[in-house]
Structure formats: structure tokens, C-alpha cells
Amino acid sequence: MKHGAKTRAPSDPSSGAGESKQIAQVAIKTQGLIKDYGSGENLVHILRGVDVEFERGRFTVIMGPSGSGKSTLMQTLAGLDTATSGHVYLNGADAERVKGRRANRRGGQRGWST
């Protein structure tokens, strides 16, 4: 996954927003997200320091070649997988520390629960 991927904010002058600055609400954000599989000689780096923000109410496309980490990123954002290191923020709060939310892997259910 490309390090430092960013989306264009709605306040970008080229988007036709004019002089009025709109503050984009970030629904989910990652900082320094790293995901490795295996160990020793079999260690594979899937995500390497991914910093990305997804704005609330906007459609986002994640593109890349096979094996580039797209599915791993989405599974980590959804709470289906855990990162080796780094942070995932949901509505501005660290997903690991959000009260009442946790990775739910019981009873066949997976993902963030409230």
C-alpha cells in the first residue's frame, strides 16, 4: 500500500468550493499502519507506514496491483484484522481505546461492535 496516500479535501480551490473553507469530517484515519505476516525468513511486509484519511459521506476507491495490501488495509480498518503497529482512528478516537467498541470475533461475528 502506498505510504502517505491522501484524499483531496472539499476545501480544495480546484473543487469549486470558492473562498469558503469547509472542514471535512474524517470518519476513519490511519497513522503509521504496519501489518506483517510470518516471521524470520518468512516475514512479509504487507502494509508499511500507511497514513490515510477517509472523509465522512465521500466515496473512495482503493486501487493497486494484486498483493499490494488493499484487502489487508480494508480488513484492518473494519476491525477484522489487527495491525502489527500503528493506529486506526474511528471518528477521531483511537479504535483500540474507544469505550464500548472492540474487535468482535465471538459467535461468528467480526468487525467493530458498539
Summarize the structure.
By secondary structure, the chain is mainly beta.
Structural write-up:
There is one protein chain. The chain contains 1 helix and 6 strands, in the order E-E-H-E-E-E-E. It has 114 residues and is mainly β. The strands form 2 sheets. Strands 2-1-3-4 form a 4-stranded antiparallel sheet, covered by helices on one side. The chain has a two-stranded antiparallel ribbon with strand order 5-6. Strand 1 and strand 2 (44-55) form a beta hairpin. 13% of the residues are buried.
Largest sheet: 4 strands, antiparallel
- Derived from helix and strand composition plus strand pairing, the structural class reads mainly beta
Widest β-sheet, arrangement of strands? 2-1-3-4
The chain-level mean pLDDT equals 78
Overall number of strands: 6
Termini gap: 29 Å
The poorly predicted ranges are: 6-21
Query: What characteristic shape results from the CA principal axes?
Result: globular
Helix content: under 10%
**In sequence order, what are the helices and strands, one letter per element?**
EEHEEEE
Beta-strand content bin:
25-35%
Determine the number of helices (DSSP H or I, runs of at least 4 residues). 1
State Rg. Answer: 16 Å
